[in-house]
Amino acid sequence: MATVELRFSASPEHVRTARLVAAAVARRAGVEESALDELRLAVGEACSRAVGLHTTLGLTGPVRVSLTEGEKSFAIEVGDDTPGPPASPADSGNGVAGDGDELGLAVISALVDQVEVTSDERGGLIRMSWPTARDTD
Prior knowledge:
137 residues, five-stranded antiparallel sheet, alpha+beta
């Protein structure tokens, strides 16, 4: 299982770089070409959400992106340093997330079949996964 990890300061100009790296690693991992545009959009939404939360809360830690190639799937995790439980499209949030945050999560949910929004001691985490073409022998 190969993993690529990115960490970047919570600045909007780094989101584009994260999208480009995610698409390149996903292509190499065997994600269908037809899914790459949606993957880029989902990663952009997740990273933009993390940047926005860091900016709003004055957090100085980096946004974390992990790209993991499995046997039959490709997973992307975007982590932030926000305290408290995660916000979800069906939830009104934790008092920190605003309407833009909920909209971003709704967009991600519409783009990705397998998405999970959680949090732990490190902060919030959005985990997304796509099947790879390699398992269709």
